[in-house]
Fold this protein.
Amino acid sequence: MRSLLLACTFLSLSLPFSLIANAQQKQDPRAQAMAKTAVETELAADKADHTRWRYRSDITRPEGHFLYIVVETDKGSVKKKIEENGKPLDGGALNSEMKRIDSFVHDPSQQEKQRKDSSQDDARAEKMLRMLPDAFLWSIKSDSPTVTTLAFTPDPNFSAPSMEARVFAAMAGEIVVTKPGHRMQSLKGHLLYDVKFGFGILGKMEKDGTFNIERRQIGPGVWTITESHIHFNGHVLFFKTISEQEDEVKTDLRQMPNGTTLEQAANTLRPEPTSLNASR
């Protein structure tokens, strides 16, 4: 979802009047309060979490299917591609991956760029998360002893403060919140209407685009996204296709020791995929 929001930052857009005219749902204060509590819980947990993890990242994009091993550190993340389109990388390709990783480890400018990009992404994501309770009309879809499913639709009275927020606020969907704990277990939604860029002159984001985020607990008080499925389409200037298509599944999560350096992270990746395959 972040990539979609970032792609819309520099494009002017307009939402159709029918978005406002057709909104009939009323706000359920109890459901809205639960959404707000879940947001506050996630923000507090994120600030308190200093753990770093190693995991397998299985990504599918229009250009292909890729398998990476990712290692997080306090100074950034390193990742090594080990498969492409179902085939293991050969020795030459794996050596090229390690050369790229070593270049990153010894280049402060690359590290700073990653840090800035990550910080900007996190800031945008936090803004969207904080906006969640107020941008939508909330209702309780279902309730059980372990989870509550909250449904959301656009609030016609919400005034979006930015271009990306206006795209965000054109969605409807649901969030599953755990009981107790108030943690977001899943978040999914779809774009209700075509979102036009420059009043349709420059193009549009097509309705029915979808996102689906799955999360699970991986440590005491620590939750992470384990699956994300992003599918949006559209066009710009009548010819160029907008394609935000990405599926990622994270598996084999293992906590890294505190204080792991970039060099140490790179060294753990150096023998891969041999040691990974041997342990499976």
Observations:
- Residues 56 and 251 are 5 Å apart (CA to CA).
